[in-house]
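Complex 905.
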Amino acid sequence: MDYIAARQGQILVKGKDNFNISCEKKSEAGSVSQRACVFCGSRVVLYPVADALHLVHGPIGCAVYTWDIRGALSSGPELHRNSFSTDLREKQVIYGGEKKLYESLIELIDRHEPKAAFVYSTCIIGIIGDDVNAVCKKVSQEKGIPVLPVHSEGFKGTKKDGYKAACEALFSLIGHGNIDNVSPVSINILGEFNLAGEAWMIQEYYKRMGVEVVAVMTGDGRVERIARSHGAVLNVVQCSGSMTYLAELMKEKYGIPYIRVSYFGIEDMAEALYDVAEHFSDYPEIRQKTEELVADELSELLPQLTAFRNDLEGKKAAIYVGGAFKAFSLIKALKHLGMTVVIAGSQTGNKKDYEMLQDLCEPGTIIVDDSNPLELSKFVKETGADLFIGGVKERPIAMKMGLGFVDHNHERKIALAGFKGMYNFAVEVHASVMSPIWNLRKEVL
Amino acid sequence: MLLRHTTADVVEREGLTINPVKTCQPVGAMYAALGIHGCLPHSHGSQGCCAYHRSALTRHYKEPVMAGTSSFTEGASVFGGQANLLQAVNNIFTIYDPEIIAVHSTCLSETIGDDLNQILIKAQEDGKVPEGKSVISAPTPSYVGSHITGFSAMVEAMVKYLSINSGKSNGKVNLIPGWVEPCDMRQIKSIAKRMGVENILFPDTSDVLDAPLIGKHQMYPDGGVTKEELVSAGDSIFTIAMGSFASEQAAKLLNKKCNVDYEVLDIPVGIKATDRFIMKLSQTAGVEVPSDFKSERGRLVDVITDQEQYLHGKRVAIFGDPDQLIPLTEFLLDLNMEPVYVVSGTPGKYFEKRIKELFEQYGIDGKVKNGPQADMFLLHQWIKEQGVDLLIGNTYGKYIARDEDLPFLRYGFPIYDRVGHSYFTTLGYEGGLRIVEKILGLFHDRQDRDAPEERFELVM
Ligand code: SF4
Ligand code: SF4
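Predicted structure with iron/sulfur cluster bound:
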């Protein structure tokens, strides 16, 4: 197989290659990489804060491409679903865009009265050197709301650095709210963005356990709830790639410990609840309620899965997702459906992630970092996968090759988290893999 | 009530753009480049832009969209991206083996002053471009123009780098379709073919972005204008450029470089623009108009008159790309509708001028705006001032349509939430019929939906 030579260490076969993956490096120039930028990272993390203003400072494109693309649902305000851009023109590229930024902020805050404002700097701002911090500070003083610069110039790293910038912005909101009434049995959920209403499902579980959720960051997010999140006793980090950094910051400043969890798949979901219960072991009724909850949900779910399993037993799946953590859960979830994973890859995994990935996979599995369409389609062909799990850019490739597909990224419209989500996942995998349309893909004319 | 914050009184804005009716140049350059056979578009800048542009095109066309990126990091942003691009060219030809690489810049690479042309000459000199392969490039900083001007720049680059006048006529007519759907490109070719006019259509995304499913992923699908055709475009007898925003620059350059005469026509949307296109084809190629065009046209007019009472006096708000809005506005006017608000984010004086002429000609008291602050916020404010019966525009119109409870026809780019736009043409008389069918469908559905029990009728 032909790879870009420099990518050799990023593609390994379990059981065959010496397992020393090289990752966390920048993509080769010229590769058709599936990766995004710093700004993209910041934007996906912060965008669900629904009562805040999100102003993209830069040329128009960056704002348009991130306009309401992720379906992060809100139960109230919808300000976040608008697209606000300073739409930089040549003039500002030469003379600077601070004035335009200032005026735009004032106008927007006056009209929409947001609870806070996030100002995203895109690539070009880093080059022309606008003093975004100063403008934000000034506006914040004049308008009396937090106006937070998010330094997310695209070229200054990877999506991960964008997560970090977002965490910093969130962190500066935290600590301002009143925490008098926060329960001693309380948590924050970090890294859950309420795609397809998942944050609502998860919150419901914790509520049933008797645990108060102070803030979800950032699904269905509200500035006020974030501002008092330092009152919570524990941070529960779901999308660890994006939010562990914030958990660290909060641990340091407020002494709040954190645990890492995943809400995808049966074991991981149950564990996420048990781990929280464990933390509140001084309250034995919580453990008991958790057991009841899990038993309840499983007694409904497990029999439902059997039917799918009968059809799917022995089918092969390929996974290529953003964060490696998601891949772990998916591998376990697919096992419940009788499927084997033959390709497992991520855009941003680190060494530890890939080691864990290797442990979870069967021998012969191709493990890949920062892949591209040409490779992915070759892998699929070699392994004879029946299902592909990926995001928007992978879907049409999988479809063209004639195999089932499940979106586990932006374009997902059904909840895949939680026990109900496992069922939804099974339905979707089954429907896609078993579709009769794949029998028609070969030309007969 | 997503847009509950929109106020009715129109506020003057200087800087800010709210809910834009445009996007940035590179995505247009990328789309145009995909219309060359065996071409890999390449984005010279950071990874993010390229990922976004590919996502945007993938979402609209529901097809794999391939493109390379120079993967800028901080180093490149300080020292320039030459090394990245040279390496990229090398990597791309070795690994992905395209016929052509079509490079476009982004805000970032433009701002730091990378000269694509220079760098690519160096790539050639360094032997990084294999024998028989080509590299073309277009500057597309996104702080000027819009996705449409980016498209235009890449079409111009096709001429600039490839077209040659060999001194021997090929007897063909060049057709430059502008940013339209793959099915529209197919339709233009088909009209020319039915007329017996040999042509070179560029770019041509049919069979690239509406490729069939055959059980394998083709890095380079079967469609696209070939490099040989682009070279030969310099030997054609005439060029018809459709749309002044997306197509005129290439035609102009072809005229200057290879002495091919040209005329800019509207994209053939609706009856009159299609008439003009067909007449022009017949004239330049010296062919008769086959009679089946006359019947096709007659059937369209017939359907319109049959349903005339549902169309006349209906107020319409439209937004989108200038080359499409001009003939679409004209068509709506011919349908006896009233396109009262017309908004395009793409800058350019010609647009307002043409739309105002149309308003005047048909006696419409309408509003038109394009350029930076011509956005959906403005359009929504106008609609709040005085309502309309129909909204036409890309996917993002759905917010306004829902808030104002308006029938909504999706048209233009991008359309993320419906299918069909890339398969069923809206060009020519056939496409005109489709537009009318869709509009009538919306009105009829609305009437059925809103009818009280006693007024719910079988025959409409
Ligand atoms: S940086 Fe420029 S080219 Fe890139 S997405 Fe933003 S506007 Fe478009
Ligand atoms: S790489 Fe830069 S310019 Fe491109 S989308 Fe990201 S922030 Fe915008």
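Chain B has a mean pLDDT of 94.
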